[in-house]
Amino acid sequence: MVATLTAAGxxxxxxxxxxxxxxxxxxxxxxxxxxxxxLLLLGRIRAHANFAEYVPIILLLMLAIELSLxxxxxxxxxxxxxxxxxxxxxxxxxxKDGANPLRVVGALGTWILLAGLSVWALIVAAGY
Length: 128
Prior knowledge:
The protein is mostly helical. It has helices spanning 2-29, 39-69, 74-94, 101-126. The longest helix has 31 residues, at 39-69.
């Protein structure tokens, strides 16, 4: 479970960082609930929420694969390290207006990880 633990540990730290970023803007903008029309706060809220929407299922897929194989394949470790990288890229990408390379890398990277791990999990489940 080394890959899943590594990814989960790094993602936990990133989630905490994203939380602190939301709170910092909430305090400076004096907004306790919602975004108060503050675009910076909205971006930080969405980065935090998007992380919470995608990362748990990706970690669950990693864990299921790792437990089913009873070992940590090197390619799973690569994916485990890629997850925090693409999520950080996404968070910084959402801090900029409109589409930008960081946001594209973050979103596309997340989708590729989700799709790839989903297919891999199905293959493992089928016994191949």
